[in-house]
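Weekly structure sync, notes
Attendees: PL (lead), two postdocs, one rotation student
Agenda item 3: pending single-chain targets
PL asked that the sequence for the first pending target be pasted directly into the notes so everyone works from the same version. It is reproduced below exactly as submitted, 381 residues in total.
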Amino acid sequence: MEEGILVGSSHKNKSAGAASKGPRSELSTLDFGSAGGDVARALAECAGKIEVQEGGDAFAGVAEDAAVLYANGQNDLAAQVLSEFVTGLTPGQGEPVWLMLIDLYKLTGKRAEFDERVIAYARSFEKSPPPWDVADAPVAAGKTAAPAVALGTALTDQVAKQFERVREAAKKNGAVKIDLSRLRSADESGCTLLRTLMSDLNAASVNIRLSGASTVANMLRGQVLAGRRENQQMWLLLLDMLQQTDDIDTFEEVALDYAITFEESPPSWEPKAVSEMASTTAELVTAVQMDDGFVLEGDVLGTNAEPVRQLAAFAAERSRVDVDCARLRRIDFVSAGAMFNVLAQLQGQGKLIVLKDVNAMVAALLRVMGIDQVARLQLRN
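Predicted structure, written out during the meeting:
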């Protein structure tokens, strides 16, 4: 299925030795974040850098046009380009373009158009078409993604203003994602602020999705000392984090040290709270704590592509990273450019990045950007 979309993946007139030297220098030197993310200028600059394999010009050109239109939010125009092209094909031709159109209808919630096209697809290719996947449907009107906060390396009083914004947004939305995986140090003030934030949100019945609890627990255990009566909030945050990791043995050990140190009863183990938190944090824990996995989901847009930076940080100490893209709906041109630069650097460091279960619309843009030359690209079945 993948060989039909040929933009950016050709190695025509290149020896195997040349191909093994890594990404093309022309693309890796482009600055996709300059001039405020001027997509038109970047496209013009990029146009001369992309190879199109002979024999695939028609398919490649349509795939490229539709991918860039979709990346820029021009869904109807992208659908028009794809629809007009597949209508003129003979049976059995252009399956990758058909799959792009079908995926586009799913991603934009066009159920009637989807149903019409999958019937035509089945007739053309004499096999079962892709199903309508609820996970691909657009977010219902009026609903927004939960606000997210990714803390830096230090938990200090410097996070106070950030937490105020998080508190306000989380209470308005009813849910929040908090990523603690990059924390490397904390002081008493920072621990107090985080515990107060979580207490306030729990009291307001906000659904907290937490990642990195085990990272924080390990860090805090190196900063507290049994018998030294100081940093009580740090001790309490340690116990909070151990609750989230469902590590009751370590929790009881630390709780005993706390009782001896402060001569008071420690917080009790609350299995129900841990169960609820575990069920809501599964997706984030997968993204930051698995040995070889990372998750990209939703829409990755604009020059401030935090998920791309998180991927770079996640891959820093790993030789291979499997990136789950099953719920990645869209990535725009600027963010894809930033991703290319990051992946090119990682490839140069000898790392293998595998983008898995990518939908056909996103995959086409990634090929346009040459990302398939610096990472392994696997389309969704």
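Discussion points:
- The two ends are 9 Å apart (CA to CA).
- Residues 243 and 286 are 18 Å apart (CA to CA).
Action: rotation student to compare against the earlier draft before next sync.
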